[in-house]
Amino acid sequence: MPDEHHFPGAFHNRPAAGQPERHEPLDDAAPRGEDTQTPAVIGPLGRRLVALADAMRRHGVVVGTSDVVDAGHVAGALGLENRERLREGLAAALVRRGEQRGVFDDLFDIFFPAALGRRTAAGDLGADDLLAQLPEFDAENADAAELRERAKALTELLARALAENDEQALETLAGVVVDEFGRLRRAGDEGFSANQAIDQFQPNLAVARATELLREHDEYLRRLRAEQEADALEGSGSSPGLADEGVGTSEGGGGAGSGGQAAAPLEGWQPDPFVQRFDRDEIRTRVAGFRRRIETESRRRNAEIRGSASQATYAVTTPIERRDFSQTYAIDAAQMRRVVEPLARKLAARMAAKRRRASHGRIDIRKTLRASMSTGGVPIAPVYDHRTPNRSELVILADMSSSVSGFSRFTILLMQAMQAQFARVRVFGFVNTVDELTETVRSVGADGDLIEALRGNTRMQRGHRNSDYGMTFVDFVAHHLDAVTPRATLLVLGDARTNSTNPRYDALRTIVDEARHAFWLNPEAESQWGTGDSVATKYAEIIDMHECRTITDLRDFVTKAL
Protein backbone atom coordinates (compact mmCIF):
# COMPACT_ATOMS: atom_id res chain seq x y z
CA MET A 1 0.00 0.00 0.00
CA PRO A 2 1.50 3.39 -0.96
CA ASP A 3 2.50 5.77 1.79
CA GLU A 4 0.51 8.93 2.42
CA HIS A 5 2.85 10.94 0.18
CA HIS A 6 2.25 8.76 -2.86
CA PHE A 7 -0.21 10.33 -5.23
CA PRO A 8 -3.25 8.13 -5.76
CA GLY A 9 -3.29 8.31 -9.53
CA ALA A 10 -5.02 11.50 -10.62
CA PHE A 11 -2.21 12.27 -13.09
CA HIS A 12 -1.99 8.93 -14.87
CA ASN A 13 -1.34 9.39 -18.56
CA ARG A 14 -2.34 5.75 -18.94
CA PRO A 15 -3.65 3.21 -16.42
CA ALA A 16 -1.39 0.37 -15.41
CA ALA A 17 -1.65 -2.69 -17.61
CA GLY A 18 -4.88 -4.54 -16.92
CA GLN A 19 -6.26 -1.85 -14.60
CA PRO A 20 -9.27 0.40 -15.28
CA GLU A 21 -8.69 4.14 -15.59
CA ARG A 22 -9.56 6.11 -12.45
CA HIS A 23 -10.77 9.68 -12.28
CA GLU A 24 -11.92 10.12 -8.68
CA PRO A 25 -11.21 13.64 -7.40
CA LEU A 26 -9.43 14.09 -4.10
CA ASP A 27 -11.97 14.41 -1.27
CA ASP A 28 -11.00 17.82 0.00
CA ALA A 29 -9.65 19.49 -3.11
CA ALA A 30 -11.43 22.71 -3.98
CA PRO A 31 -13.57 22.29 -7.12
CA ARG A 32 -12.58 24.45 -10.03
CA GLY A 33 -14.45 27.70 -10.23
CA GLU A 34 -14.91 28.15 -6.48
CA ASP A 35 -13.55 31.13 -4.61
CA THR A 36 -9.80 30.64 -4.19
CA GLN A 37 -9.40 33.38 -1.61
CA THR A 38 -10.00 30.72 1.04
CA PRO A 39 -7.46 27.93 1.59
CA ALA A 40 -7.54 26.06 -1.69
CA VAL A 41 -6.64 22.53 -0.63
CA ILE A 42 -6.59 20.46 2.50
CA GLY A 43 -6.47 16.73 3.04
CA PRO A 44 -4.33 14.45 0.80
CA LEU A 45 -3.38 17.13 -1.76
CA GLY A 46 -2.58 19.66 0.94
CA ARG A 47 -0.37 17.17 2.75
CA ARG A 48 1.35 16.39 -0.51
CA LEU A 49 2.13 20.05 -1.16
CA VAL A 50 3.52 20.44 2.35
CA ALA A 51 5.69 17.33 1.85
CA LEU A 52 6.94 18.75 -1.48
CA ALA A 53 7.85 22.05 0.19
CA ASP A 54 9.64 20.26 3.07
CA ALA A 55 11.68 18.21 0.59
CA MET A 56 12.64 21.35 -1.34
CA ARG A 57 13.84 22.97 1.90
CA ARG A 58 16.01 19.95 2.66
CA HIS A 59 17.73 20.53 -0.69
CA GLY A 60 18.47 24.16 0.08
CA VAL A 61 15.52 25.81 -1.68
CA VAL A 62 13.90 28.54 0.40
CA VAL A 63 10.13 27.90 0.51
CA GLY A 64 8.02 29.99 2.87
CA THR A 65 4.62 29.24 4.34
CA SER A 66 3.02 31.82 2.07
CA ASP A 67 4.57 30.04 -0.94
CA VAL A 68 2.87 26.79 0.11
CA VAL A 69 -0.44 28.65 0.46
CA ASP A 70 0.07 30.09 -3.03
CA ALA A 71 0.77 26.59 -4.33
CA GLY A 72 -2.53 25.43 -2.81
CA HIS A 73 -4.38 28.23 -4.59
CA VAL A 74 -2.62 27.29 -7.84
CA ALA A 75 -3.67 23.64 -7.50
CA GLY A 76 -7.24 24.70 -6.76
CA ALA A 77 -7.34 27.03 -9.76
CA LEU A 78 -5.66 24.79 -12.32
CA GLY A 79 -7.18 21.50 -11.26
CA LEU A 80 -5.63 18.07 -11.66
CA GLU A 81 -6.55 17.18 -15.23
CA ASN A 82 -3.31 18.38 -16.84
CA ARG A 83 -0.15 17.31 -15.02
CA GLU A 84 2.30 19.51 -16.98
CA ARG A 85 0.11 22.55 -16.49
CA LEU A 86 0.07 21.91 -12.75
CA ARG A 87 3.87 21.46 -12.79
CA GLU A 88 4.37 24.90 -14.31
CA GLY A 89 1.87 26.48 -11.95
CA LEU A 90 3.49 25.03 -8.83
CA ALA A 91 6.94 26.00 -10.13
CA ALA A 92 5.77 29.60 -10.45
CA ALA A 93 4.64 29.51 -6.82
CA LEU A 94 7.57 27.63 -5.24
CA VAL A 95 10.68 28.33 -7.35
CA ARG A 96 12.48 31.66 -7.13
CA ARG A 97 15.73 31.08 -9.03
CA GLY A 98 16.46 29.29 -12.25
CA GLU A 99 19.00 26.88 -10.77
CA GLN A 100 16.34 25.59 -8.37
CA ARG A 101 14.12 24.31 -11.16
CA GLY A 102 15.95 20.99 -11.52
CA VAL A 103 15.39 20.15 -7.84
CA PHE A 104 11.71 21.09 -8.14
CA ASP A 105 11.19 18.95 -11.25
CA ASP A 106 12.81 15.89 -9.64
CA LEU A 107 10.68 16.25 -6.51
CA PHE A 108 7.50 16.97 -8.47
CA ASP A 109 7.96 13.68 -10.35
CA ILE A 110 8.25 11.88 -7.00
CA PHE A 111 5.28 13.45 -5.21
CA PHE A 112 3.07 13.79 -8.31
CA PRO A 113 3.99 10.71 -10.40
CA ALA A 114 2.72 10.27 -13.93
CA ALA A 115 1.43 6.74 -13.32
CA LEU A 116 1.35 3.79 -10.95
CA GLY A 117 3.22 0.57 -11.64
CA ARG A 118 4.32 -0.49 -15.12
CA ARG A 119 3.58 1.66 -18.15
CA THR A 120 4.29 -0.87 -20.87
CA ALA A 121 0.94 -1.39 -22.56
CA ALA A 122 1.25 -1.26 -26.35
CA GLY A 123 -1.59 1.25 -26.55
CA ASP A 124 0.54 3.76 -24.67
CA LEU A 125 2.43 4.47 -27.85
CA GLY A 126 -0.62 5.80 -29.64
CA ALA A 127 -1.68 4.93 -33.16
CA ASP A 128 1.66 3.40 -34.17
CA ASP A 129 1.52 0.67 -31.53
CA LEU A 130 5.26 0.18 -31.86
CA LEU A 131 5.52 -2.22 -28.95
CA ALA A 132 2.88 -4.45 -30.53
CA GLN A 133 5.49 -5.36 -33.13
CA LEU A 134 7.68 -6.96 -30.46
CA PRO A 135 7.18 -10.45 -29.08
CA GLU A 136 6.43 -11.02 -25.41
CA PHE A 137 9.56 -10.81 -23.30
CA ASP A 138 10.32 -12.13 -19.83
CA ALA A 139 13.18 -9.91 -18.63
CA GLU A 140 13.53 -11.64 -15.25
CA ASN A 141 14.32 -15.03 -16.77
CA ALA A 142 16.18 -13.85 -19.90
CA ASP A 143 19.87 -14.62 -20.39
CA ALA A 144 22.51 -12.16 -21.63
CA ALA A 145 22.03 -13.06 -25.32
CA GLU A 146 18.26 -12.55 -25.14
CA LEU A 147 18.74 -9.21 -23.40
CA ARG A 148 21.07 -8.08 -26.20
CA GLU A 149 18.54 -9.05 -28.87
CA ARG A 150 15.79 -7.26 -26.98
CA ALA A 151 17.99 -4.17 -26.69
CA LYS A 152 18.57 -4.18 -30.48
CA ALA A 153 14.83 -4.33 -31.15
CA LEU A 154 14.10 -1.53 -28.71
CA THR A 155 16.97 0.55 -30.14
CA GLU A 156 15.26 0.49 -33.54
CA LEU A 157 12.03 1.74 -31.95
CA LEU A 158 13.97 4.38 -30.05
CA ALA A 159 15.65 5.56 -33.25
CA ARG A 160 12.25 5.99 -34.92
CA ALA A 161 10.87 7.85 -31.91
CA LEU A 162 13.94 10.12 -31.80
CA ALA A 163 13.74 10.88 -35.52
CA GLU A 164 10.04 11.74 -35.23
CA ASN A 165 10.51 13.45 -31.83
CA ASP A 166 7.52 11.45 -30.56
CA GLU A 167 7.26 12.51 -26.91
CA GLN A 168 4.65 9.90 -26.02
CA ALA A 169 6.66 7.07 -27.58
CA LEU A 170 9.83 8.20 -25.80
CA GLU A 171 7.99 8.32 -22.47
CA THR A 172 6.69 4.78 -22.81
CA LEU A 173 9.98 3.40 -24.14
CA ALA A 174 11.69 4.82 -21.06
CA GLY A 175 9.24 2.82 -18.94
CA VAL A 176 10.00 -0.34 -20.91
CA VAL A 177 13.76 0.14 -20.60
CA VAL A 178 13.56 0.70 -16.83
CA ASP A 179 11.29 -2.31 -16.33
CA GLU A 180 13.38 -4.70 -18.43
CA PHE A 181 16.94 -3.46 -17.94
CA GLY A 182 16.89 -1.45 -14.73
CA ARG A 183 15.40 -3.94 -12.29
CA LEU A 184 17.83 -4.83 -9.50
CA ARG A 185 18.36 -8.57 -9.33
CA ARG A 186 20.32 -8.74 -6.08
CA ALA A 187 18.76 -10.73 -3.26
CA GLY A 188 17.04 -8.51 -0.72
CA ASP A 189 17.48 -5.35 -2.85
CA GLU A 190 14.21 -4.61 -4.57
CA GLY A 191 14.09 -1.59 -6.81
CA PHE A 192 15.30 -0.06 -10.08
CA SER A 193 18.57 1.54 -11.16
CA ALA A 194 18.71 4.20 -13.87
CA ASN A 195 22.47 3.73 -14.29
CA GLN A 196 22.05 -0.01 -14.78
CA ALA A 197 19.28 0.53 -17.33
CA ILE A 198 21.36 3.06 -19.29
CA ASP A 199 24.52 0.91 -19.18
CA GLN A 200 22.74 -2.23 -20.39
CA PHE A 201 20.49 -0.59 -22.99
CA GLN A 202 22.98 2.07 -24.24
CA PRO A 203 20.59 4.59 -25.83
CA ASN A 204 23.52 6.35 -27.54
CA LEU A 205 23.59 3.47 -30.04
CA ALA A 206 20.37 4.87 -31.54
CA VAL A 207 22.02 8.15 -32.62
CA ALA A 208 23.41 6.86 -35.93
CA ARG A 209 20.18 5.09 -36.93
CA ALA A 210 18.00 8.07 -35.97
CA THR A 211 20.25 10.41 -37.99
CA GLU A 212 19.95 8.07 -40.97
CA LEU A 213 16.15 8.07 -40.66
CA LEU A 214 16.15 11.88 -40.58
CA ARG A 215 18.28 11.98 -43.74
CA GLU A 216 15.98 9.52 -45.51
CA HIS A 217 12.99 11.61 -44.50
CA ASP A 218 14.62 14.79 -45.84
CA GLU A 219 15.43 13.10 -49.13
CA TYR A 220 11.86 11.80 -49.38
CA LEU A 221 10.49 15.32 -48.85
CA ARG A 222 12.81 16.71 -51.53
CA ARG A 223 11.68 14.11 -54.06
CA LEU A 224 8.03 14.64 -53.15
CA ARG A 225 8.42 18.40 -53.61
CA ALA A 226 10.12 17.86 -56.96
CA GLU A 227 7.30 15.58 -58.14
CA GLN A 228 4.68 18.11 -57.06
CA GLU A 229 6.48 20.87 -58.96
CA ALA A 230 6.70 18.64 -62.00
CA ASP A 231 2.97 17.84 -61.84
CA ALA A 232 2.14 21.52 -61.52
CA LEU A 233 4.23 22.44 -64.56
CA GLU A 234 2.82 19.53 -66.57
CA GLY A 235 -0.72 20.67 -65.83
CA SER A 236 0.01 24.25 -66.91
CA GLY A 237 1.49 23.27 -70.27
CA SER A 238 3.68 25.65 -72.31
CA SER A 239 3.21 29.40 -72.04
CA PRO A 240 5.12 32.44 -73.22
CA GLY A 241 6.48 32.98 -69.74
CA LEU A 242 7.70 29.43 -69.44
CA ALA A 243 8.93 29.36 -73.01
CA ASP A 244 11.10 32.37 -72.31
CA GLU A 245 12.72 30.43 -69.47
CA GLY A 246 13.29 27.38 -71.65
CA VAL A 247 10.72 25.25 -69.80
CA GLY A 248 8.11 23.19 -71.70
CA THR A 249 9.01 24.55 -75.17
CA SER A 250 8.71 21.27 -77.10
CA GLU A 251 5.36 20.70 -78.79
CA GLY A 252 3.12 18.67 -76.59
CA GLY A 253 6.10 17.98 -74.41
CA GLY A 254 5.83 20.75 -71.88
CA GLY A 255 5.15 18.27 -69.07
CA ALA A 256 8.07 16.02 -69.92
CA GLY A 257 10.45 18.94 -70.27
CA SER A 258 9.40 20.51 -67.04
CA GLY A 259 9.47 17.19 -65.25
CA GLY A 260 13.05 16.67 -66.34
CA GLN A 261 13.94 20.15 -65.15
CA ALA A 262 12.45 19.54 -61.67
CA ALA A 263 13.89 16.08 -61.12
CA ALA A 264 17.42 16.91 -62.23
CA PRO A 265 18.61 18.54 -59.01
CA LEU A 266 18.01 15.28 -57.07
CA GLU A 267 20.40 13.30 -59.26
CA GLY A 268 23.59 12.86 -57.25
CA TRP A 269 22.17 14.93 -54.40
CA GLN A 270 24.18 14.78 -51.17
CA PRO A 271 23.08 16.17 -47.79
CA ASP A 272 24.82 19.33 -46.66
CA PRO A 273 27.56 18.57 -44.07
CA PHE A 274 26.32 21.40 -41.87
CA VAL A 275 22.78 19.98 -41.93
CA GLN A 276 24.13 16.52 -41.10
CA ARG A 277 26.07 17.89 -38.15
CA PHE A 278 23.03 19.83 -36.97
CA ASP A 279 20.88 16.68 -37.20
CA ARG A 280 23.39 14.67 -35.17
CA ASP A 281 23.53 17.34 -32.49
CA GLU A 282 19.74 17.47 -32.35
CA ILE A 283 19.51 13.69 -31.99
CA ARG A 284 22.14 13.71 -29.24
CA THR A 285 20.10 16.33 -27.40
CA ARG A 286 17.02 14.12 -27.67
CA VAL A 287 19.00 11.11 -26.42
CA ALA A 288 20.10 13.15 -23.39
CA GLY A 289 16.43 13.90 -22.78
CA PHE A 290 15.64 10.19 -23.06
CA ARG A 291 18.27 9.43 -20.42
CA ARG A 292 16.56 11.94 -18.11
CA ARG A 293 13.25 10.17 -18.75
CA ILE A 294 14.86 6.91 -17.63
CA GLU A 295 16.10 8.58 -14.44
CA THR A 296 12.64 10.04 -13.78
CA GLU A 297 10.95 6.69 -14.36
CA SER A 298 13.41 4.94 -12.01
CA ARG A 299 12.69 7.47 -9.25
CA ARG A 300 8.95 6.97 -9.73
CA ARG A 301 9.17 3.18 -9.52
CA ASN A 302 11.49 3.33 -6.51
CA ALA A 303 9.17 5.78 -4.74
CA GLU A 304 6.41 3.17 -4.95
CA ILE A 305 8.68 0.54 -3.38
CA ARG A 306 10.75 2.53 -0.89
CA GLY A 307 8.52 5.51 -0.20
CA SER A 308 8.47 9.08 -1.47
CA ALA A 309 10.32 10.48 1.56
CA SER A 310 13.36 8.25 0.97
CA GLN A 311 13.56 9.06 -2.74
CA ALA A 312 13.09 12.77 -2.08
CA THR A 313 16.15 12.66 0.17
CA TYR A 314 18.57 10.43 -1.75
CA ALA A 315 17.44 10.32 -5.40
CA VAL A 316 17.38 14.03 -6.25
CA THR A 317 20.33 15.46 -8.15
CA THR A 318 22.08 18.23 -6.26
CA PRO A 319 22.22 21.34 -8.48
CA ILE A 320 25.71 22.22 -9.61
CA GLU A 321 25.50 25.59 -7.81
CA ARG A 322 25.28 23.76 -4.45
CA ARG A 323 27.57 20.86 -5.25
CA ASP A 324 30.94 20.73 -3.49
CA PHE A 325 33.82 21.56 -5.81
CA SER A 326 35.31 18.19 -4.88
CA GLN A 327 32.41 16.63 -6.82
CA THR A 328 32.77 18.79 -9.95
CA TYR A 329 35.91 17.23 -11.40
CA ALA A 330 33.94 15.18 -13.92
CA ILE A 331 31.92 18.15 -15.21
CA ASP A 332 32.62 18.61 -18.90
CA ALA A 333 33.65 21.90 -20.47
CA ALA A 334 30.23 22.55 -22.04
CA GLN A 335 28.43 22.22 -18.71
CA MET A 336 31.07 24.41 -17.09
CA ARG A 337 30.45 27.14 -19.68
CA ARG A 338 26.70 27.03 -19.09
CA VAL A 339 27.37 27.83 -15.43
CA VAL A 340 30.27 30.26 -15.82
CA GLU A 341 28.89 32.57 -18.50
CA PRO A 342 25.65 33.76 -16.81
CA LEU A 343 27.39 33.95 -13.42
CA ALA A 344 30.19 36.05 -14.90
CA ARG A 345 27.70 38.46 -16.48
CA LYS A 346 25.85 38.95 -13.20
CA LEU A 347 29.00 39.44 -11.15
CA ALA A 348 30.50 41.80 -13.73
CA ALA A 349 27.37 43.96 -13.64
CA ARG A 350 27.51 44.10 -9.84
CA MET A 351 31.19 45.00 -9.82
CA ALA A 352 30.64 47.76 -12.39
CA ALA A 353 27.78 49.22 -10.35
CA LYS A 354 29.90 49.07 -7.19
CA ARG A 355 32.74 50.89 -8.95
CA ARG A 356 30.39 53.58 -10.23
CA ARG A 357 29.09 54.19 -6.71
CA ALA A 358 32.62 54.37 -5.35
CA SER A 359 33.59 56.95 -7.99
CA HIS A 360 31.45 59.60 -6.27
CA GLY A 361 34.07 60.03 -3.57
CA ARG A 362 33.56 62.33 -0.58
CA ILE A 363 31.44 65.49 -0.39
CA ASP A 364 33.31 68.60 -1.52
CA ILE A 365 32.31 71.13 1.21
CA ARG A 366 33.52 74.19 -0.67
CA LYS A 367 31.67 73.39 -3.89
CA THR A 368 28.56 72.31 -1.96
CA LEU A 369 28.37 75.66 -0.11
CA ARG A 370 28.93 77.59 -3.32
CA ALA A 371 26.17 75.65 -5.06
CA SER A 372 23.81 76.24 -2.11
CA MET A 373 23.77 80.01 -2.80
CA SER A 374 21.16 79.40 -5.48
CA THR A 375 18.85 77.78 -2.89
CA GLY A 376 19.13 80.36 -0.15
CA GLY A 377 22.18 78.83 1.47
CA VAL A 378 20.49 75.44 2.00
CA PRO A 379 22.75 72.60 0.66
CA ILE A 380 20.00 70.65 -1.06
CA ALA A 381 22.25 68.97 -3.66
CA PRO A 382 25.66 67.88 -2.28
CA VAL A 383 28.58 68.14 -4.68
CA TYR A 384 30.95 65.19 -4.64
CA ASP A 385 34.66 65.12 -5.25
CA HIS A 386 34.58 62.66 -8.13
CA ARG A 387 37.41 60.18 -8.29
CA THR A 388 38.65 58.51 -11.43
CA PRO A 389 37.52 54.86 -11.13
CA ASN A 390 40.47 52.50 -10.93
CA ARG A 391 40.35 48.92 -12.13
CA SER A 392 42.62 46.76 -10.05
CA GLU A 393 44.87 44.01 -11.32
CA LEU A 394 44.12 40.39 -10.43
CA VAL A 395 46.80 37.80 -9.71
CA ILE A 396 45.61 34.19 -9.25
CA LEU A 397 47.85 31.59 -7.63
CA ALA A 398 46.06 28.25 -7.98
CA ASP A 399 46.80 24.76 -6.69
CA MET A 400 46.38 22.51 -9.74
CA SER A 401 46.92 19.18 -7.98
CA SER A 402 44.20 16.57 -8.48
CA SER A 403 42.60 17.10 -5.07
CA VAL A 404 41.45 20.67 -5.81
CA SER A 405 41.84 21.03 -9.59
CA GLY A 406 38.05 21.11 -10.13
CA PHE A 407 37.75 24.11 -7.82
CA SER A 408 40.76 25.88 -9.36
CA ARG A 409 39.53 25.26 -12.90
CA PHE A 410 36.12 26.77 -12.21
CA THR A 411 37.50 29.81 -10.38
CA ILE A 412 40.08 30.54 -13.08
CA LEU A 413 37.48 30.31 -15.85
CA LEU A 414 35.15 32.59 -13.89
CA MET A 415 37.83 35.22 -13.33
CA GLN A 416 38.90 34.97 -16.97
CA ALA A 417 35.30 35.53 -18.07
CA MET A 418 35.26 38.66 -15.88
CA GLN A 419 38.62 39.97 -17.07
CA ALA A 420 37.01 43.14 -18.48
CA GLN A 421 36.45 44.22 -14.87
CA PHE A 422 40.20 44.18 -14.17
CA ALA A 423 43.07 46.11 -15.67
CA ARG A 424 45.02 42.88 -16.03
CA VAL A 425 44.59 39.22 -15.05
CA ARG A 426 47.60 36.97 -14.53
CA VAL A 427 47.23 33.29 -13.65
CA PHE A 428 49.88 31.12 -12.00
CA GLY A 429 49.46 27.42 -11.31
CA PHE A 430 51.43 25.12 -9.06
CA VAL A 431 51.73 21.67 -7.58
CA ASN A 432 55.06 22.15 -5.88
CA THR A 433 56.60 24.77 -8.19
CA VAL A 434 55.08 27.72 -10.06
CA ASP A 435 54.35 28.12 -13.78
CA GLU A 436 52.55 31.07 -15.37
CA LEU A 437 49.35 29.92 -17.13
CA THR A 438 48.06 33.27 -18.38
CA GLU A 439 48.62 32.53 -22.07
CA THR A 440 47.33 28.96 -21.70
CA VAL A 441 44.10 30.15 -20.11
CA ARG A 442 43.71 32.84 -22.78
CA SER A 443 44.28 30.36 -25.62
CA VAL A 444 41.78 27.89 -24.15
CA GLY A 445 39.12 30.61 -24.03
CA ALA A 446 35.50 30.05 -23.12
CA ASP A 447 35.05 27.01 -25.38
CA GLY A 448 38.01 24.90 -24.31
CA ASP A 449 38.79 22.57 -21.43
CA LEU A 450 41.49 23.92 -19.14
CA ILE A 451 42.21 20.52 -17.57
CA GLU A 452 42.88 18.99 -21.00
CA ALA A 453 45.11 21.92 -21.94
CA LEU A 454 47.21 21.41 -18.79
CA ARG A 455 47.34 17.63 -18.95
CA GLY A 456 50.88 17.50 -20.38
CA ASN A 457 52.24 20.37 -18.30
CA THR A 458 55.21 19.22 -16.20
CA ARG A 459 56.52 22.65 -15.21
CA MET A 460 54.23 22.85 -12.14
CA GLN A 461 55.87 19.92 -10.41
CA ARG A 462 59.42 19.03 -9.54
CA GLY A 463 60.54 15.69 -8.15
CA HIS A 464 57.08 14.53 -7.00
CA ARG A 465 53.38 15.16 -7.64
CA ASN A 466 52.26 16.19 -4.16
CA SER A 467 51.33 19.75 -3.19
CA ASP A 468 54.09 21.71 -1.46
CA TYR A 469 52.87 25.18 -0.54
CA GLY A 470 56.12 26.22 1.15
CA MET A 471 58.28 25.47 -1.90
CA THR A 472 55.65 27.11 -4.10
CA PHE A 473 55.70 30.39 -2.17
CA VAL A 474 59.51 30.47 -2.15
CA ASP A 475 59.58 29.86 -5.92
CA PHE A 476 56.98 32.59 -6.49
CA VAL A 477 58.97 35.12 -4.46
CA ALA A 478 62.14 34.26 -6.37
CA HIS A 479 60.74 34.39 -9.91
CA HIS A 480 57.30 36.04 -10.08
CA LEU A 481 57.02 38.55 -7.24
CA ASP A 482 57.01 41.46 -9.71
CA ALA A 483 53.55 40.31 -10.86
CA VAL A 484 52.10 41.46 -7.52
CA THR A 485 51.96 45.27 -7.72
CA PRO A 486 50.48 47.77 -5.23
CA ARG A 487 47.35 47.83 -7.44
CA ALA A 488 46.97 44.03 -7.49
CA THR A 489 44.47 41.82 -5.73
CA LEU A 490 46.01 38.44 -4.91
CA LEU A 491 43.75 35.39 -4.99
CA VAL A 492 45.22 32.12 -3.68
CA LEU A 493 43.25 28.95 -4.44
CA GLY A 494 43.94 25.75 -2.54
CA ASP A 495 43.23 23.56 0.48
CA ALA A 496 46.42 24.52 2.40
CA ARG A 497 47.43 20.88 2.90
CA THR A 498 51.21 20.79 2.76
CA ASN A 499 51.77 17.02 2.90
CA SER A 500 53.88 17.60 6.04
CA THR A 501 56.39 19.85 4.27
CA ASN A 502 57.75 23.20 5.47
CA PRO A 503 54.86 25.74 5.08
CA ARG A 504 57.23 28.76 4.81
CA TYR A 505 54.97 31.37 6.40
CA ASP A 506 57.63 34.03 5.77
CA ALA A 507 57.39 33.61 1.98
CA LEU A 508 53.59 33.91 2.03
CA ARG A 509 53.87 37.05 4.19
CA THR A 510 56.27 38.58 1.65
CA ILE A 511 53.79 38.02 -1.18
CA VAL A 512 50.82 39.36 0.80
CA ASP A 513 52.72 42.51 1.79
CA GLU A 514 53.23 43.40 -1.88
CA ALA A 515 49.51 43.22 -2.79
CA ARG A 516 46.83 45.83 -2.27
CA HIS A 517 44.37 43.11 -1.18
CA ALA A 518 44.98 39.40 -0.62
CA PHE A 519 42.43 36.60 -0.24
CA TRP A 520 42.66 32.82 0.06
CA LEU A 521 39.73 30.67 -1.09
CA ASN A 522 39.71 27.25 0.55
CA PRO A 523 37.38 24.53 -0.87
CA GLU A 524 37.43 22.61 2.42
CA ALA A 525 34.94 23.12 5.23
CA GLU A 526 36.26 25.45 7.93
CA SER A 527 35.82 22.65 10.47
CA GLN A 528 38.57 20.73 8.60
CA TRP A 529 41.10 23.55 8.71
CA GLY A 530 44.09 22.68 10.86
CA THR A 531 43.39 18.92 10.87
CA GLY A 532 45.93 16.40 9.62
CA ASP A 533 48.49 18.07 7.35
CA SER A 534 46.38 21.24 6.92
CA VAL A 535 47.99 24.52 8.01
CA ALA A 536 44.99 26.61 6.98
CA THR A 537 44.55 28.14 10.44
CA LYS A 538 48.19 29.33 10.44
CA TYR A 539 47.95 30.71 6.90
CA ALA A 540 44.67 32.43 7.89
CA GLU A 541 46.66 34.55 10.38
CA ILE A 542 48.63 35.99 7.45
CA ILE A 543 46.00 36.21 4.70
CA ASP A 544 42.22 36.65 4.72
CA MET A 545 40.97 33.08 4.17
CA HIS A 546 37.41 32.19 3.14
CA GLU A 547 35.61 28.86 2.97
CA CYS A 548 34.50 28.39 -0.63
CA ARG A 549 32.99 24.94 -1.14
CA THR A 550 30.29 25.66 -3.74
CA ILE A 551 29.54 27.99 -6.62
CA THR A 552 27.13 29.85 -4.34
CA ASP A 553 29.99 30.51 -1.88
CA LEU A 554 32.19 31.74 -4.73
CA ARG A 555 29.48 34.06 -6.04
CA ASP A 556 28.95 35.55 -2.58
CA PHE A 557 32.68 36.11 -2.13
CA VAL A 558 33.10 37.87 -5.49
CA THR A 559 30.08 40.07 -4.79
CA LYS A 560 31.33 41.19 -1.38
CA ALA A 561 35.10 41.23 -1.66
CA LEU A 562 36.13 42.13 -5.21
Automatic annotation (TrEMBL):
Where are the residues of the annotated region Disordered? 1-41, 231-275
Sections of the chain in a coiled coil: 137-171
Question: Which residue ranges have biased composition labelled Basic and acidic residues?
Answer: 20-35
Q: Does the keyword Transport apply?
A: no
> What keywords is this UniProt entry annotated with?
Coiled coil
Q: What Pfam families does the entry give?
A: VWA_CoxE
- Supply the InterPro entries for this chain: Uncharacterised_CoxE (IPR008912)
The UniProt regions of compositional bias labelled Gly residues, in chain numbering, are 249-260
Q: Does the keyword Coiled coil apply?
A: yes
Instruction: Please give the name of this protein.
Output: VWA domain-containing protein
Q: What is the lineage of its organism?
A: Bacteria, Bacillati, Actinomycetota, Actinomycetes, Micrococcales
